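note to self: dont lose this again. the chain is below, predicted strucutre after it. 187 aa total, dont forget to put it in the shared folder this time
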Amino acid sequence: MQVVYTGERLRMRPFHDWEEYVEHLRMIYMKEEEKFWGYKRCPLEREHERFNSTGALDERRSEFALELLESGAVIGGVNYVMDSLATSANIGTYINIEHRHRGFGVEGKQLLMCWLFENWPLLRCEATTLTHHHRARRGVELAGMTLEWVSQRRSWSQGKLGSWITYRIFREEWEQLPIRQVVKRGT
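---
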């Protein structure tokens, strides 16, 4: 199973080592108070055990680094959580603040979808975000996903109860995306 996928500007690959992975976790969970998700804490001891046993890559939940081709710098990551039947995966993206709003999240999502659909018998991928997180919604739309449903009030965000929105893409729709012809598989 190939785990390195390269697009036009990014390479999606496993994290090299614990130090690189923990720096990614710190960027997501500890350095930044994000206006949509709020300040989060990450249980590093549990993640360290997981990384030592799987390298942050396992069947049901994995995370990959997103690396800029021009410099080799890690600018964020993508992740997925697979359902129990391995027919659907919920994907997520994190791009460091200084690299946001340049399309890297869209390319990262598309690279992850290529990897998932090519290596698993998935029927669909989905992404969930907050209804008022307009940039995230636009990113999943640009990645090729379409609106599936909006939940009732489910989560606190910015001091108020907010709704979640879910986007999806079926295998047949992914097969029509141009990224499939662009992406390089392997090292």
